[in-house]
C-alpha cells in the first residue's frame, strides 16, 4: 500500500529493480547540501531516507529543512564511490525532474534532521521545548522507533492472548470511585448535579465483575488515572495491559503472563527463556534489599547481624547489620567516600559506614571501632578480597536492607554493569497480605482506617495456609500474589482475588473498613459475589514502563506520544486551562444540595 | 490452554476421544432436572453446556442454579435416544463422582439459564434490572456472543490495518477542550487550581498532530466523550476506530476503509463485495430523503415539483413537492391513514397527504384538489400501480425530503423489508462544506459565531474546485468528505483535512471564529501547520454502532459490557455519586482566581 495520490513508492522501496524507472516520492526535506550548482536533498519519509538530486536551480531554490515535498524523478545508482553504506538506500539517488512544495516550514525551534541520530542526546533542547513542539520531536527517528515499538508490543501481546483464548473487553472510563490507594480524578455529572464520576485507577473491580459474568479470560490495554503529585517518572494517565482469568490459580496466571512477556520481547527482537526465575519477597529483601531486585548482576547483601552480635561498636549494636561489597573499592579516594555519605543522606540514611581492605591486610574506615576478632574475620565474612571495600548499614532490618539494596544498584551503575539491552526477569512471590499503614517510607495512601493496609489491594486472596487465620495474625499473614520484575523495575503484578464475600468481609474488617463504608464504596462487588463468583486471578503489566525498558530509554515520556510535563501540564496544548463561567455553570459543580434537601 | 487448576477440559472439548476418560470440568449450574433420584445438571462454561449426571443424592442435594461447581467424573455416550441434537456436546454426558461447590448463589433476581435462549426477549426483566445485575445479564449466551463478536471485530480490524502499515498510537484522555460541536466533560486539575482538562470528543486534533509528526498511518480504538443529553441510543462515552493517513487523498482513505470494513464483516462470517457503491449527498437527499440512506430496499422518492408547477392545490404550491409509493396501500383502512398523520406530526410535519390508486382507476385522498390533468397522469408520474397508495410532502426541499425519507423507511419496516442479516453499504460523498448554523432541525451545536457552521468539522478541506472561492460562496462550497453508511446508519465518516494555515484561517473566518479565539482554542494546531504539515486525511468508524449492526441488536447498550442508563447513571455501581468535602477541596474547583490576580 505504498502507492497513494502523492507517491508511487516509499524511500526504502527503492532497490535495484527500480533503477532507471520513474518514481514519485513524498516526504520531508531532512537536509540539503549544495555542490557545484547541484542540490542534494535527503528526503525523509516514515520508512527512512533517500537522496534526491536537483540540478535545476529554480527547482531547488525554495527548498529548506522540513519542507514537505513531492518529488518526481528517475532512480539511478550513485556514481562510483559515492554510495553511503550507513543508509539502506545509500546505493541509489533519485534525479528529480519535478519538485512540488506541499507545505513550507518556518525556521525550526530545534534541529530535527536524522543527521543528529549519531550525535549525543545533549544536542536536544530542554524537555519543555521538546514537549511544546512535540510534533517536531516525534519526527526524530529515535522517537519514531519508540512509537513503532510500542505498537508492535501491543500486536504481539494481543496475538499471544488471542491464542490463549482471551476476549478483549472495553470497560468504562467514567465510573464510581474505587478504593485503590491513590487520589481519583473526578468528573462532574451535569445531568445529576452535585454528583461526580471518577476516572478508574485501574479496571480492577470491573474485571472482577467480568469474571462473575462468565467472561473467563479478559484482557484490555487499559488507560488508568491517578491524581498523584508528579514525582519521578509518573504520568497522571498511564496504560496497563490488564488481564484476568476465571477458574485458575497463581500458577496458571504466571504461566500465561510468561507467554505474553515472551511475545512482547520477541516483537523487539529479544529471546526470553521460560520459565522465568522466582524469588520470594523475603529472599529478595534479604539478598538484594529490594522487592524488585535487579538481577543483571550479583553482589548480594551479606547479613552480619550475628557476626557483630557482641560488637563494641555502638552503631552496629542494632537489630540488623548488613553489608555490600564494593569491588576494587579499597583505593577509592577519601573525597569519593565523602560523596557516598551525601548520596546516602539523599536516600534518607544518616550515613554509610565503610571499610577498605587494603593490599597487605590493613583495614581502613570504621574498622578501628571493631574488636580484634571482628577485624580479623571480616574480609572472609563478607566475601571480599584485598583491594575491595565494603559498605555497611545497621538499624531496622527493612530500612537497612533498602539502603544496602540502593548501594548495590548504585555500585553496579557506576561500574557500568547495567546494560539496557540485557534483560533479567524474576517473579517475586510470597508477599505479606498486609503492611503497616503508617510506614513513613511508604508512598502509598493507606486503604482503610486500621493500623494495617493492603500490600497489594483489598481484593487479594490470603494464601491457602492463612485463609482461616489471617485476621488473627495480620502481621505474618501471606497472600497469593506475585510481581514480575525486570532489571530492577516492577513491570507488573497481580494476585488471586477473593471470590467469597465471607473472606472479603474479614479482610475489610482487618483494614478497618466498616460494612457501611464497604457497601457505599463497592457494595456492588460484594453483592455480585452472592450470585456465584468463580475463583479468579489476574495480573497487569505497566505498559509504559515495559515500553521504556524495551526501547532502552530512561523516561516513560519517551514512549508516550503526548505525555504531560511536571504538574500535569501539557506544554503543547496548554492543558489544563480555565473554563468559561457558562461551562462551569453547566457542570453543576456549584449546585447546592441543601437547596433540594428537606 | 483449557487445562487449569480447576479443569482439565472445557465443556465443548468433550468429543469421542474422551469417552471413557476422566475429566474435571468447572462452571455454573445452568439448569437442574431430577429423574428417579438422579440429578441432571447442565454445566455451563465459556464454551457452552454439557450434561452432568449425579446419582448420589448427598452430592446433588446442595446444587442450585448459578452455583459455581467443579465436577470430576467420567465421560460417556448418552443412552440410545437420549442425545440432544441442539447441543454441541449433546451426545455425551459426564458421570460425576465428585462435585465441589466453589461458590453458592443466592436466589436470582432473574433467570439466566440458556434454556431461555430460544424464548422471546420479552422474558427479560426491565433494562434497569439488567443493568443493575449486569454480571448476571452478561452470563446469557446472547450477551456472551455480543462481547466475543466485539473482540473479534477489533482483532480483524487491527490485522487489516497492520497489513496496510498502520501504527497504533495511544493519545491522551486528559486534554485541552477542542471545538467539535458538543459539550465537553471536564476534569478539575488539582495541581493547577481553577484549571480543567477536557475529555476528548474525539482524538481529531491529536491525530492531525501525529500526521505533522511524520507518523504516516495512525489508528486507535479510541474512547470518546460527549456530554450530551441522553437521547435515543447515545452513551456519554463511546468508542471509535480512528484512522488517519498522510500523503493521501479521499480515494486512498476510502480504499483503505473498505478493506477494514470487509475484514470486520468477515470476522462475523459475512462477505462484503468491494468496491462499495457511492452516492452523492445531493442524490441521497433527492432519492432517499436522507444523508444515510437505507439501501436494503428500493422505492426512491419521486420529485413532482415540476409536475405540480401549475397546480390549483394551494398546499402543493411549494418550492418542492415529492412523493413516495406505498406498495399495495390503496386498501389501507382510513384509521390507519389517520395513524400515519399522527406519525408524521411526531416527525415534526403538519400532516401527510396521500392518494390511493383504487382498482378501476379511481383516485382517493387529496386527489380531489388536483386538476383533471394532474389526476390523469399521476399514477404514471409516481410509478405506482393500481392498488398502491402514495404519500406526498410539499414545502422546503430539505424538510420535505427528510419527511419522505422517513416515510420510505417506515413503510419498509412495516413491510418487513429490513432484514438485519443483510447489509447494504454505501459511501455518501460530495458534502457541502458548510451548513446554516440556525437550522432548527439540526441537533449539533454550531461551531463558531456566524450564520455558517461546519457540515463535518472546522478542519475539513474544501474540495479542489472551491479552494479559492469557498469563502465567497459558503452556501454552495463543497468539501472533500465522505460518510460510510450501512442499512440507514452512518457508521463512519471522514474527510481530507486542511493542512495549510492560510486555508484554515479562511475557514475559521467564515465560521466567525476570531484569530484570538482560534489561538486560544487550538492555536497549537495552527502553529504546527507552520512547520511542514503533510497533506492528510482520515476516517473514524462508530465502533458501538458497527458492533450493534453486526450483532443484529437494536441498542448499542447490548454490545457494551457496562453501559450507562438514561441520564448517565450506572444502576450497577451507583455512579455518578457525591464526593466528600475533602475530595471536593482537593480538586481545586472552589479556588478563587481573584485572590491570586492583581
UniProtKB/TrEMBL annotation, chains A, B:
Reactions it catalyzes: tRNA(Asx) + L-aspartate + ATP = L-aspartyl-tRNA(Asx) + AMP + diphosphate
Q: Which EC main class describes this enzyme?
A: ligase
Q: Where is this site: Important for tRNA non-discrimination?
A: 35, 81
Q: Does the keyword Ribosomal protein apply?
A: no
Keywords attached to this entry: Aminoacyl-tRNA synthetase, ATP-binding, Cytoplasm, Ligase, Nucleotide-binding, Protein biosynthesis
Identify the EC number(s).
6.1.1.23
Instruction: Name a biological process GO annotation.
Output: aspartyl-tRNA aminoacylation
Q: Where is the Aminoacyl-transfer RNA synthetases class-II family profile domain?
A: 147-563
Task: List residues binding ATP.
Answer: 226-228, 235, 490, 542-545
What is a GO molecular function of this protein? aspartate-tRNA ligase activity
Q: Localized where?
A: Cytoplasm
Could you state one GO cellular component term attached to this entry? cytoplasm
State the family it belongs to.
Belongs to the class-II aminoacyl-tRNA synthetase family. Type 1 subfamily.
What protein is this chain from? Answer: Aspartate--tRNA(Asp/Asn) ligase
Native organism is Bifidobacterium magnum
Q: What is the lineage of its organism?
A: Bacteria, Bacillati, Actinomycetota, Actinomycetes, Bifidobacteriales
Q: Which gene encodes it?
A: aspS
Amino acid at each position: 500500500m505504498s502507492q497513494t495520490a502523492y507517491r508511487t513508492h516509499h524511500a526504502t522501496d527503492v532497490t535495484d529493480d527500480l533503477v532507471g524507472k520513474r518514481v514519485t516520492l513524498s516526504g520531508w526535506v531532512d537536509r540539503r547540501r549544495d555542490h557545484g550548482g547541484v542540490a542534494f536533498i535527503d528526503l525523509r519519509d516514515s520508512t527512512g531516507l533517500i537522496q534526491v538530486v536537483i540540478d535545476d536551480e529554480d527547482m531547488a531554490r525554495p527548498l529548506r529543512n522540513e519542507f514537505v515535498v513531492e518529488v518526481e524523478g528517475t532512480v539511478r545508482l550513485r556514481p562510483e564511490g559515492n554510495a553511503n553504506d550507513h543508509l539502506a538506500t545509500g546505493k541509489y539517488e533519485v534525479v528529480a525532474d519535478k519538485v512540488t512544495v506541499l507545505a513550507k516550514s518556518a525556521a525550526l525551534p530545534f534541529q530535527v534532521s536524522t543527521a543528529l541520530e549519531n550525535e549525543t542526546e545533549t544536542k536536544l533542547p530542554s524537555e519543555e521545548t521538546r514537549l511544546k513542539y512535540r510534533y517536531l520531536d516525534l519526527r526524530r527517528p529515535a522517537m519514531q522507533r519508540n512509537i513503532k515499538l510500542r505498537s508492535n508490543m501491543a500486536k504481539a501481546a494481543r496475538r499471544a492472548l488471542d491464542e490463549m483464548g482471551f476476549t478483549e473487553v472495553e470497560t468504562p472510563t467514567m465510573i464510581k470511585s474505587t478504593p485503590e490507594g491513590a487520589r481519583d480524578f473526578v468528573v462532574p455529572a451535569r445531568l445529576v448535579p452535585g454528583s461526580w464520576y471518577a476516572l478508574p485507577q485501574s479496571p480492577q473491580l470491573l474485571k472482577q465483575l467480568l469474571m462473575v459474568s462468565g467472561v473467563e479470560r479478559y484482557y484490555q490495554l487499559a488507560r488508568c488515572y491517578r491524581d498523584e503529585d508528579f514525582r519521578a517518572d509518573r504520568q497522571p494517565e498511564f496504560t496497563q495491559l490488564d488481564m484476568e482469568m476465571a477458574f485458575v490459580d497463581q500458577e496458571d496466571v504466571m504461566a500465561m503472563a510468561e507467554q505474553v512477556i515472551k511475545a512482547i520481547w520477541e516483537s523487539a527482537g529479544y529471546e526470553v527463556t521460560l520459565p522465568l526465575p522466582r524469588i520470594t519477597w523475603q529472599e529478595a529483601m534479604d539478598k538484594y534489599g529490594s522487592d524488585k531486585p535487579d538481577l543483571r548482576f550479583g553482589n548480594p547483601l551479606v547479613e552480619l547481624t550475628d557476626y557483630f552480635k557482641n560488637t563494641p561498636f555502638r552503631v552496629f549494636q542494632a537489630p540488623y547489620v548488613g553489608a555490600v561489597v564494593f569491588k576494587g573499592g579499597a583505593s577509592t579516594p577519601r573525597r569519593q567516600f565523602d560523596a557516598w555519605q551525601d548520596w546516602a543522606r539523599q536516600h534518607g540514611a544518616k550515613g554509610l559506614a565503610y571499610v577498605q581492605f587494603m593490599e597487605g591486610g590493613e583495614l581502613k574506615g570504621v574498622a578501628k571501632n571493631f574488636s580484634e576478632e571482628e577485624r580479623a574475620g571480616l574480609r572472609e565474612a563478607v566475601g571480599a578480597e584485598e583491594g575491595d571495600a565494603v559498605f555497611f548499614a545497621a538499624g531496622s532490618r527493612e530500612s537497612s536492607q533498602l539502603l544496602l539494596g540502593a548501594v548495590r544498584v548504585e555500585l553496579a551503575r557506576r561500574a557500568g554493569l547495567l546494560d539496557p539491552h540485557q534483560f533479567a526477569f524474576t517473579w517475586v512471590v510470597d508477599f505479606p497480605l498486609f503492611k503497616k499503614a503508617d510506614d513513613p517510607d511508604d508512598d502509598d495512601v493507606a486503604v482503610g482506617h486500621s493500623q494495617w493496609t493492603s500490600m497489594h489491594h483489598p481484593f487479594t486472596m490470603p494464601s491457602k495456609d492463612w485463609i482461616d487465620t489471617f485476621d488473627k495474625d495480620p502481621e505474618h499473614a501471606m497472600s497469593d500474589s506475585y510481581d514480575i520484575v525486570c532489571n530492577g523495575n516492577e513491570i507488573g503484578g497481580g494476585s488471586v482475588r477473593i471470590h467469597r464475600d465471607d473472606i472479603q468481609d474479614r479482610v475489610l474488617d482487618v483494614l478497618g473498613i466498616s460494612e457501611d463504608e464497604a457497601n457505599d464504596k463497592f457494595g456492588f462487588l460484594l453483592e455480585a459475589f452472592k450470585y456465584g463468583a468463580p475463583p479468579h486471578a489476574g495480573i497487569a503489566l505497566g505498559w509504559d514502563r515495559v515500553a521504556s525498558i524495551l526501547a532502552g530509554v530512561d523516561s516513560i515520556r519517551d514512549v508516550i506520544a503526548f505525555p504531560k510535563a511536571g504538574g500535569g501540564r501539557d506544554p503543547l496544548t496548554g492543558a489544563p486551562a480555565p473554563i468559561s463561567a457558562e461551562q462551569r455553570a453547566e457542570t453543576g459543580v456549584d449546585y447546592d444540595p441543601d437547596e433540594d434537601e428537606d
